[in-house]
Write a structure and sequence with these properties.
With 273 residues, the protein is an alpha/beta fold. It is built from ten helices and five strands; from the N terminus they run ββααββαβααααααα. A five-stranded mixed beta sheet has the order 1-5-3-4-2, covered by helices on one side. A hairpin with a 6-residue loop joins strand 3 and strand 4.
Amino acid sequence: MPTLRKPPTTIEYSIHPLALDVFHFISDRYQPILRWNTFPDSLKSALLQQQVYTGIMHSEKIPKPNSDESLKKAVKYQFITPMWALKYTDQAMPLPENYLICYEPDELTDHQISLMCWNSFFQLLAFSVDRRKLSRAWDTINDMVPTDVMQELLSAKSLTLDVFTAWTGGSKGTLVEQKRKEKKKKSKGGSFLMQGSILAAAGIITKIIGAVYRIPMLNIMGLKGQGYYDMAFQVYSIALIISSYSLPVAVSKLVSLKMAAGERKNAFRVLRE
């Protein structure tokens, strides 16, 4: 049976290895609806002081003086739940006002520990979801939570859209629209890379053709004709640089400046002129 006690100050504290995934998920990927750094210090302190932690207490036996019996001395405590509070404590250390529910190392199986960790996460989820990121949260939960945990806690292999929208109070339309926008952003990134690759390939092919055609042209025109060609090509290159590089860049810059300033009419006037 677990015991309840105040946190000792002389032992080692750490997060249980089976709880690390939940801890990192809450710390790095989960986006709460409220920002902790905007809370007043008095509220932060009150929320952290009333926490009761659950974990595994490891002890070692030390000989009892003048007796064959031995005493148990606590040496290490491994946190299981709640993970969100540890995110805001100093180096995962409990406060003196907290209480610890202590299990012996052999009292809980790995599966039970995993269930307790993820159950703690779902408790957090019930009170705090950023509705601007419903689609991302839904996908992340289904990717991160083990199937056996889903099955035992939700009686399903995954978190369905109906259940998730019911939990968060969001609408299916909002979630579907967010997912559509995310897909659109990804497709834009892919199409941009594709277009860049096509332009790079076209540039390489053009350079190769430009190098190859000079050999038959020299044989046909001769040295005198090649000299005339080179003189004319210099004039053509200058005109090409002015028309194809300088002017479009200048026009683009002017249009973007006008659009940024909200002067749409002036931007169209630059294009017409």
